[in-house]
Amino acid sequence: MPELATTPDDAQDLDGKDNIASAVAQLKERFKERCATSKALREQHGHTTTWLRNQPPDAVVFAETTEEVADIVRVCARFKVPVIPFGAGTSLEGHVNAPRGGVSIDLSRMNAVLEVNAADLDCRVQAGVTRKQLNSYIRDTGLFFPIDPGADATLGGMASTRASGTNAVRYGTMKDAVLGLTIVTADGRIIRTGGRAKKSSAGYDLTRLFVGAEGTLGVITELTLRLHGQPEAISGGVCPFPDVASACNAVSTTIQMGLPVARIELLDEVQIRGCNIYSKLGLAETPTLFLEFHGSEAGVREQSEMFSAIAEEFGGGPFEWATAPEDRTRLWTARHDAYWAGKALKPEAQIMVTDVCVPISSLADCVAATHEDIRAEGFLAPIVGHVGDGNFHVQVLVNIDDPEEKRRTEKFVERLSLRAIDMGGTCTGEHGVGQGKQKYMAREHGEALEVMRAVKHALDPDNVMNPGKILPQS
Amino acid sequence: MPELATTPDDAQDLDGKDNIASAVAQLKERFKERCATSKALREQHGHTTTWLRNQPPDAVVFAETTEEVADIVRVCARFKVPVIPFGAGTSLEGHVNAPRGGVSIDLSRMNAVLEVNAADLDCRVQAGVTRKQLNSYIRDTGLFFPIDPGADATLGGMASTRASGTNAVRYGTMKDAVLGLTIVTADGRIIRTGGRAKKSSAGYDLTRLFVGAEGTLGVITELTLRLHGQPEAISGGVCPFPDVASACNAVSTTIQMGLPVARIELLDEVQIRGCNIYSKLGLAETPTLFLEFHGSEAGVREQSEMFSAIAEEFGGGPFEWATAPEDRTRLWTARHDAYWAGKALKPEAQIMVTDVCVPISSLADCVAATHEDIRAEGFLAPIVGHVGDGNFHVQVLVNIDDPEEKRRTEKFVERLSLRAIDMGGTCTGEHGVGQGKQKYMAREHGEALEVMRAVKHALDPDNVMNPGKILPQS
Question: Is the Cβ of A365 closer than 8 Å to some Cβ of chain B?
């Protein structure tokens, strides 16, 4: 392998384009065919499941080790060329777009599970391991990794967007699941944060600073993750409600009573209609909760019975629950296919998907106001959500090529985001900021946004790490 | 009230002492008798439950609002005078000492519970509210705040040291309990981090950056905290073991099996002897686990029976458990008085207390090696710990005025800290770094320590916020 030049001087007199050309030339020399510049590959690496315009990087490098990532970052740092980490490309807010060009580091080949410490309920993985791959790998240990955003995302990407999903109400989010990280910093150093102890008071919590930073402070290359024992028993089922308010109120009561529900998901009547079409469920088209309980045999029975009583109190039910794995799998596969089920309602449309999160006492009001807004706009827009956390998603089915329809949808997302913030919530519970939610950062964080900028400037003074994400230009 | 001068210029030509005098003069003018400079009060504000030398501040200001804290910080920033936040003074590693002099901000009068949102299981408090005060305040809501470091610390102080305690194995640490913060930054701005949503992916996790920062990045003045429902049923009890290894192995198995134990505490035979003297318990003087289970009536019975079986497997038992509140209270009061029980073993001695945390699979080895070290040194040093997290404390009973005994104890703490780090653990699980653990930061964090320094420099360029804590001088 040729040595990398290390003097920073020769970058001085070049403009941006020349800098990118020089960096890509060095990377091509170093990584040969693993540094790709074909249009198709570049576009695929700017593409996400998003309504945002594709902004491809100038090159894609397939890294295989942390040291290689550090080499790539050093080259980019030297030429002040943007670095965009790429995992599975399943993010929803334009996180992998390259608005200023630059180099996409594809981490999908870094997909080794490095160690599993069953006795300590932890493991160490490379950033390109996906959540399903990890769960397959550890199945025989009796352990599982609970965080489940739906898509089979990479664990590095999930950490970077602070992902969560259906199990978060019981097991927390990536903020809770990550014990430690290996990071390549903006100047190409390799650092390790956190460790394998279950807790520590030894200094700043860098782990949680990098979790959710969307690659804007460094590239995550390895993760130490907390695992959980597979529950002895699982039960689950569906519970219809006459309206969204009564379903939300049942959720609130369930949480307030401390029922340790593992999943509690709301699908509104439009979403149920989509699921019936796409997943052939045959459910009544009314707001419905999908639930799952984890525990001992006696425990899950007790939880199911307690929930039945709560549902009845709010006019819902009957709660039909089953412990047979095949029934549960069918149900949760349908839940995870909600995106495609939404699309089945209007196959010619695109989906503009967004998420917000509010205090649970405001959930019913926030969903009601959003439904009212959907009706007023005449949108077809199913709602589905991790309502145990106060988090819900709206999928607006639109013709994205119609500028007026696109503009109206953007305005709708804006009203929804501000509504959630005004209720003491957040403009994104789990999708992240990326490009799509930047404009709400000032409203949500106020003066604290300047502290975020100070941290960004301290760790990435030249703004090479995934620029144009999270922090709006000031 | 007189206006505060805001031009930074007049601080330029003064040396450190003059700067402090000028700052204190301005604070006296602004805060009158609430700015105190008596020797006794200053010494009390440098004093902690610690073996470290008392280093009193130059003045103590009793703040009553966030705006007052901001005023104090602005005066100190202007004169580049250190600011040391003070809550209850229960920290163990010299966090409230003033090695470079400066102004101690006493937050104990900021002790209002500002709101309790029972439906959302959260509340907002001023930083000077203590954990016991909060729990008294919310008792009738059916909720409780679980984090329990033993001492009746202020919640601001607990957040600053990332405190935890006996319940952390079930309910997490302050990292998990804090939803949002109000912070006065080093330049006297007031920012709000986080919010009331149960989760968010909207930008950098500033909340967890300030939790555990020990006042070195800003002063916490208000906290939004997560509460939990009081469990329907609680059972608890004690379980003796023939040796520490078998007790540790029973703990490991309990955790691996996913038994949702609320407390699982190890007291070694020396600690039990102290508790028998101090709290008149009459327990067999052998390594013993104190346990507590939270859940439904059926759930806690099931958990207790499962634990009994595990204990028996490792040669422990009988596990004697009871659900009567008075029996449990007696037991946990004794556990919380472990510090004084240790002292009862050698009333003329001082206590040098330290804590480490290791992966649970290394717990038995780490305790065994530490016991061996204690024996070799001829120390009297009870061990007690939150072993469900792999966290344990050693209280060395020493004559701190004997330089040789002090030196030997310091060397012992050093060996213990490095042993924990070498096992993949941390030099402090819950006490924090303060002054006492700074020398282990480089060994534990490596290159990541430079990232911590960069964050510190970005948020506090003049090093006025609690200087001389966490980060060793480079």
Answer: no
Which regions of chain A carry the CATH code 3.30.70.3450?
Answer: 233-337
Q: What is the CA radius of gyration of chain B?
A: 23
B203 shares contact with chain A (CB less than 8 Å): yes
Which residues of chain B carry a pLDDT beneath 70? 1-15, 48-49, 474
Q: Do B195 and A449 touch (CB under 8 A)?
A: no
On whether any CB of chain A is under 8 Å from the CB of B59, the answer is no
A443 touches chain B (CB under 8 A): no
Question: How confident is the model over A83-112, as a mean pLDDT?
Answer: 96
CATH of the structural domain B9-106, one choice from 3.30.43.10, 3.30.110.40, 2.60.120.10, 3.40.50.1820:
3.30.43.10
Distance from CA of A210 to the nearest CA of B (A): 8
Secondary structure of residue B351 in the 3-state scheme: strand
CA distance B5 to A44: 57
> Domain A233-337 - what CATH class?
alpha beta
pLDDT on residue A11: 42
Nearest by CB: B199 against A168, A192, A208: A168
Q: Which of A199, A445, A471 sits opposite B389 (nearest CB)?
A: A199
Helices A297-313 and A244-256 sit at what angle, rounded to 10 degrees? 140
Answer for the pair B70, B141: CB distance below 8 angstroms, yes or no.
no
Span(s) in chain B for CATH 3.30.43.10: 9-106
- CATH code that applies to domain B346-439: 3.30.70.2740
pLDDT tens, residue by residue, B417-453 = 999 999 999 999 999 999 999 999 999 999 999 999 9
Residue A231 sits at the chain B interface (C-beta within 8 Å): yes
- Does the pLDDT value for residue A30 go beyond 60? yes
Rounded CA-CA distance B180/A390 in Å is 16
How close, in Å, is residue A40 to chain B by CA atoms?
30
Chain-chain contact of B427 with A202 (C-beta, under 8 angstroms):
yes
- Number of Cβ pairs closer than 8 Å across A and B? 278
List, for residues A282-321, the tens digit of each pLDDT value.
999 999 999 999 998 998 999 999 999 999 999 999 998 8
Token readout for A203 is: 């200094």
| Least Cα separation, residue A298 to chain B (angstroms) | 8
Shortest distance between the Cα of A193 and any Cα of chain B, in A, equals: 6
Q: What is the mean pLDDT of chain A?
A: 93
Which residues 236-255 of chain A have a CB within 8 Å of chain B?
252, 255
Question: CATH 3.30.465.10 in chain B, residues?
Answer: 113-229
Q: What is the ipTM of this complex?
A: 0.95
Residues of chain A with CATH 3.30.70.2740: 346-437
CATH number belonging to domain B233-340: 3.30.70.3450
> CA–CA separation, A184 vs A72, rounded Å?
10
Q: Is A191 on the interface with B (CB under 8 A)?
A: yes
User: Average pLDDT for residues A36-54, to the nearest whole number?
Assistant: 88
A429 to chain B, any CB pair closer than 8 A? The answer is yes
Which of A163, A193, A452 lies at the smallest CB-CB distance from B448?
A: A193
Residues 79-98 of B with CB under 8 A from A: none
Kindly state whether A301 is in contact with chain B, defined as any CB-CB distance less than 8 angstroms.
no
Which of A200, A201, A457 faces B458 most closely, judged by CB atoms?
A: A457
Q: Which fold has domain A346-437?
A: Alpha-Beta Plaits (3.30.70)
Q: Does domain B113-229 have CATH number 3.30.465.10?
A: yes
